[in-house]
Write a structure and sequence with these properties.
CATH class of the largest domain: Alpha Beta
CATH architecture of the largest domain: Alpha-Beta Barrel
Strand content: 15-25%
Helix content: 25-40%
Distance between the termini: 43 Å
Number of helices: 10
Oligomer: single chain
Strand order of the largest sheet: 1-2-3-4-5-6-7-11
Shape: globular
């Protein structure tokens, strides 16, 4: 069985991941995770999220993949027991000590080895298996040929997880000290300021104050700025090599991002399972979220994993403007998220479906008035339509450029 694993930075993202086709989600609590800004799940919220996911047959994995200090590792046993009582299905760790602590505290809890551990060979994988690991999340630097070799030489019941989509780190397996040195925010504690995305110039030591651009334009050089990974058209190769869990990066991303990308990869993975081509509309979907220039990482050769030198900005072609609450008696009830008008080329994306064009003459605002403009965020709106969409379907529009 292969698995689609989606990020859940908060409860709304968890709902989006579950509703749009994830087989499992990964999330962080208020401690021990690698995304401090996305540490939104206290134990009450975690329990609620696990219940929501489990009710729909979706697993929940908890990130505990920071490099813990002495003080942190001492409170890990109580933390993981509390998390286990919430119903989590696995813990994701990078530190060998954390692995040992978790297996001693909750022996029955599955443990996945984070990409932060930098596993690139089968010897390391086998030793981690002996210590109780059920899965390895491979370093992003491993190519498909080496994934195949690892799969052949590890136990059959050890899973291989690999990233298929999202941001890539300029450092090896995410181990970076740049943020700590420059702004005192520890990337290995989940606080990365992403200085690799900043603009840099070259300075010669005997000529202080003289800044040399590395190529001729007025924007500087983004010499550390990695492209985003996108493997949606190559999932068959990863499956054949032995990957069992396909992971989408993005616990700092929006619910809209999680929904769209999860929906696209769900369609792609279903096609791969059936031996069919990936639907063209699914490939197009990953370009309808905010992203940097795409590449295939190191999987197909390091040449495609080069840095992007022109800028560090995102490409954004669509805006998320509303979410469907319900449909009844020819009315679409929705909550507005961003400005739109009836003249925009509106689309609705429903879970498990390709997008549908929505042409309407007006919307009905919260006062019952017909209007062509929706300009109040979070306002409850109605649209008269014979089309029916499930709750959490997304209304969006192209960005005006």
């Amino acid at each position: 069985m292969i698995e689609l694993l989606s990020p859940a930075g908060d409860y709304e993202c968890l709902e989006s991941a579950v509703d749009y086709g994830a087989d499992a989600v990964y999330l962080g609590s208020t401690m021990f995770g690698m995304r401090a800004a996305a540490a939104k799940f206290d134990f009450d919220t975690m329990k609620r999220g696990v219940e929501y996911a489990h009710n729909k047959g979706v697993k929940v994995y908890l990130t505990c993949n920071i490099v813990p200090s002495n003080a942190e590792v001492e409170i890990l046993p109580e933390f993981i027991r509390n998390a286990y009582s919430c119903g989590i299905d696995a813990a994701i760790v990078s530190d060998i000590g954390a692995l040992s602590v978790i297996k001693n505290a909750v022996p029955e809890l599955a443990v996945h080895i984070s990409t932060q551990a930098g596993v690139v060979n089968y010897v390391t994988a086998n030793e981690l298996y002996k210590m109780g690991a059920n899965r390895i999340v491979l370093a992003r630097e491993v190519d498909i040929d080496n994934i195949r070799r690892i799969r052949e030489k590890i136990p059959a019941d050890m899973d291989i997880e690999a990233f298929v989509h999202g941001a890539m780190c300029v450092s090896f397996s995410g181990r970076c000290l740049l943020s700590s040195f420059m702004v005192d925010r520890n990337a290995n504690k989940g606080e990365c300021a992403q200085p690799c995305r900043w603009k840099y110039h070259l300075v010669e030591e005997k000529r202080p104050g003289e800044y040399y651009e590395l190529f001729e334009d007025d924007r500087g050089s983004y010499i550390l700025n990695a492209k985003d990974m996108c493997m949606i058209e190559h999932l068959d190769k990863l499956k054949e090599a032995g990957v069992t869990s396909f992971k989408i990066e993005g616990r700092a991303k929006s619910a809209y991002y999680v929904a769209v990308v999860t929906n696209a990869y769900r369609a792609a993975m279903d096609a791969v399972k059936n031996g069919s081509p990936v639907p063209e509309w699914a490939v197009e979907e990953v370009y309808k979220v905010s992203h940097r220039q795409y590449c295939t990482g190191f999987y197909l050769g390091k040449e495609d994993a080069s840095q992007y030198y022109e800028n560090s900005g995102y490409i954004r072609d669509f805006d998320f403007v509303g979410v469907v609450d319900s449909c009844e008696d020819g009315i679409i009830n929705l909550t507005q998220r961003n400005y739109f008008t009836v003249r925009d080329e509106l689309e609705i994306l429903a879970p498990g479906k390709k997008p549908v064009r929505l042409e309407i003459p007006y919307v009905i605002n919260s006062k019952g008035e017909k209007t062509e403009i929706a300009n109040r965020a979070t306002e409850k709106l109605q649209i008269e339509s014979d089309l029916v969409f499930p709750p959490h379907s997304i209304l969006r529009k192209p960005v005006n450029k």
